[in-house]
Amino acid sequence: MPDKFADIILPVAVKGRFTYRIPEHLSEIAIPGVKVLVQFGNKKIYSGIICKTHNDKPDIKTLRPIIEITDPLPLVNDKQLNLWSWISDYYMCFEGEVMKAAVPSAFFPEGETTTPVNYKYKPKEETFIKLAAPFSDQELNEILDKLKKAPKQAEIVAAYLHLTGYSSQSEIKPIRKSLLLKDSKSSPGIIEVLVKKGILSSVSLEIGRLTDPENRIEPLRKLSDNQLVAYNSITNSFKEKDIVLLHGVTSSGKTEIYIHLIEEQLKLGKQVLYMLPEIALTAQIILRLQRHFGPITGVYHSRFNDQERVEIWNRVTDENLNTGYRLILGVRSSLFLPFSNLGLVIVDEEHDSSYKQHDPAPRYHARDSAIMLASLHKAKTLIGSASPSVESYHNAVIGKYGLTELKERFGQIKLPEIIIANTREAYRKKLMVSHFTPELLTAVDEALGKNEQVILFQNRRGFSPYVECSECGWIPTCVQCAVNLTYHKNINRLVCHYCGYTSAIPSKCGSCNSSGLVTRGFGTEKIEDEIKIVFPNATVGRMDQDTTRSKNSFNKIIKSFEEHRIDILIGTQMISKGLDFENLTVVGILNADNLMNYPDFRAHERSFQLMEQVSGRAGRRQKHGKVVIQTSDPDNKMIRLMLRHDYLNMYKIQIGERSTFNYPPFCRMIKINLKHKDRASLNNFADILGSDLRTFFGKRILGPEYPIISRIQLWYIKTILIKIEKEKPLVRTKEIIMETIARLEKVKGAGALRITIDVDP
Q: Minimal CA–CA distance to 569: which of 595, 534, 536, 544?
């Protein structure tokens, strides 16, 4: 029998797949998708995934055998392997990096050749109690008679019979020991006595870590006339196009349309993936989906621990229509789950920058990867937004995507009134109270007077962006990064938001020794402090990275706001998207300027989207909403467009500028980051790479340049940007880039250089 070999993906950042010999006793079960243990290097034992088996012996002297197949059932399917391969090729990273991001690490036991392999996933077990034998009714009566002198023991047996409804005709049901003890108000020692007497027995059973919702399922709501028109438009577009963009103003009822489309796919026996950009959004929408679809609805995001992620993965694989997850609501990583029969992918808030993974590799865009995932399943993709990305709207305009528009809010509710508050004038006339204009304070006061709620948006956490010496202007900076330290009042320390470095607040200036240090600017923490002084009777909450570190913190804050235990909620951009509160009527955007004054070709588009999303939270029911935008530049064209909620003209301005200056969607972009701990070495290597790339790409190369933040965690950074025309062959371009980088890495001293590639940055 000829030798068989397997090409295996390992979770390492190394190019290519690794070939191992398949031992004869494993040849029957060594199939693509199964998980194997192999030796990699001299000592390390890794878990890998077989992606291909064949008889072609590679030209290597010694070929190691597979040590073990840890599960004969495939962990991943062929569509997942194809998606990994596409992400690896398109985003210029290694398949091992994709695998590491895609599969919960608890699936991958590891070890050394000298020590036992460490299996990370352990099923959760609990002690259950059941009858030791199928006693008849007469035998049970005799047992209870004998226990009359031990009333506590009799109570436990009676409690078991009551809780399980046992009779001699029924099966013996195990019951949680904890529940039995609670119901009988007894102690574990008494159960042990009954086990010794042979009346009860104790068993350890596997229980899931996931809690299923109640089985009460509500019928679907009837769509309004506008929603029905949009729904029919989408289904008709799907007959010709695989991707449809739903452009619907905030509170137009997009989610209800999604729910009807999901129902249609589930009836066909298909799976559905519903993607959202933020964990905060899943809390509200999961309740809506579970009300309609019950326990077949699963959630997947980064706040689940590794053990829980394994169980979610297994529920997606489970083909049982009652216990398997057929609808998944998740953030970007949910597209890696083991779907076998996808019918529809929904990407809600498709414009959101959170869909793009920045670090570590793979630096994929979840919206674009989800479109590829759907195409592998021959499924449809619906992308939705109140303010679509310029690229997506352009694709709809040129006919690449279908386009459906919802231009009115559900129930004919008016879009909120927008008020522009000029902070420069208010400061000049000494009308500002702390960081609040008279217009904002009036709106908040009126809302609180009517027992309504308020959201204040400030896209910066912490108390103060920086501390400054009032004498000489010295500012404390991070020792590892080229950024100012942010003051956090609740821990009374200065914090770096890039590397996490913290420091005590200096008592004196580090330059002139003056003691006149003052805080400058304001973050969410400072707003929280100061709004409490202005409105002492209001209950104030805060939602930012500092207050949402624990697993259920999002849900707790949102629930408190929904139940009106919070009057004013202050937050960063996580409060701007998709949340739906009945009693929220006023939204304040405290500093619109810092959204727009950012050196990025997408800054104006992003600021419009963010303001549109935040303002969309106000007045979503019968009460008319009000949005106050505080700015020192009320004539800014994006703010003027926001006044009219004029997405179309924002798009026309942006697409005109992109066309003139050759930015996406008229070109593709690849960003190369070079990092080195020595500044001179970095400059040298960056110049070599820039020069080499120019020989191929000429003026398409921009840089190398230092980015805004030129040092993070002691690493100096330089950036090279490559613009490639849409019609140029991308595969060959990427090959040239990889070959050029490979040559640089062989230059003397380049071992300490780190290079990362970001496609579609």
A: 544
> What tokens does 558 get?
């949102």
Pick the CATH number of 667-759 from 3.30.70.600, 3.40.190.10, 3.40.190.170, 3.30.420.310: 3.30.70.600
Per-residue buried b or exposed e for 639-675, using 16+ beta carbons within 10 Å of the residue's own CB: bebbeebbbeebbebbbeebeeeebbbbbbbbbbbbb
Closest of 367, 24, 406 to residue 230, by C-alpha: 406
Q: What does pTM read for this prediction? A: 0.87
216 or 315: which leads in pLDDT? 315
Strand 453-457 and strand 568-571: the pairing is parallel
Question: Alpha-carbon torsion 28, 31, 34, 39, what sign?
Answer: positive
Average of per-residue pLDDT values in the chain: 89
Residue 606, class by beta-carbon neighbours within 10 Å (0-12 exposed, 13-18 middle, 19+ buried)? buried
Give the pLDDT of residue 1: 62
Highest mean pLDDT among 283-292, 598-607, 649-658: 649-658
When the candidates are 3.20.20.80, 2.60.120.560, 1.10.3720.10, 3.40.50.300, the CATH number that belongs to 417-461+536-657 is 3.40.50.300
Between β-strands 667-676 and 754-759, what pairing exists: parallel, antiparallel or unpaired? antiparallel
Give every CB contact of residue 319 below 8 A, 6+ residues apart in sequence: 340
**Tokens coding 268:** 């066909």
Q: For the residues 247-263, what does the mean pLDDT come to?
A: 90
Cβ partners under 8 Å of residue 138, min gap 6:
none
Q: What is the pLDDT of residues 481-527, one digit of tens each?
A: 888 898 888 788 999 988 889 999 898 998 899 888 888 777 888 88
Burial of 378 (0-12, 13-18, 19+ CB in 10 A): exposed
CA nearest to 486, candidates 587, 572, 603, 590: 572
Which residues have C-beta within 8 Å of that of residue 46, sequence separation ≥ 6? 10, 11, 12, 37, 38, 39, 40, 108, 110
